[in-house]
Hints:
The chain crosses the membrane at residues 21-42, 84-102. This protein is α+β, with helices and mostly antiparallel strands. The protein has four helices and six strands, in the order H-E-H-E-E-H-E-E-H-E.
Amino acid sequence: LARYNTTVASLPKDSHGKIRYFEGTPIPSNLLIVALLAYGVFTGKFWDFKNVPKSPDGFISPFKLAFVGENVWFGEIHVFNTNFTFHPFVLIYIVSGILMVSKRLRIPKF
């Protein structure tokens, strides 16, 4: 929103003085990522609530199991034989950020 407010003066307007498009994706487009994550949870891709292992003192939180290699889309990559792992799924956030600040991507306003 701040970027839109600062660039609004330089954007072309129609005959009514309204701006015709957004530069880059608007913030609500991030709801697509939320919907994708919700779909992953709903379909059991990230974890299966029916098969949560039990510990002696009760259930283990499924959130501890949610984002381990085999439970994440595209898996995980071990970096240089260290304990550091990279989940390619996070590239969705990088792509989303790049699209938000893009000057060439023009999304029509309705």
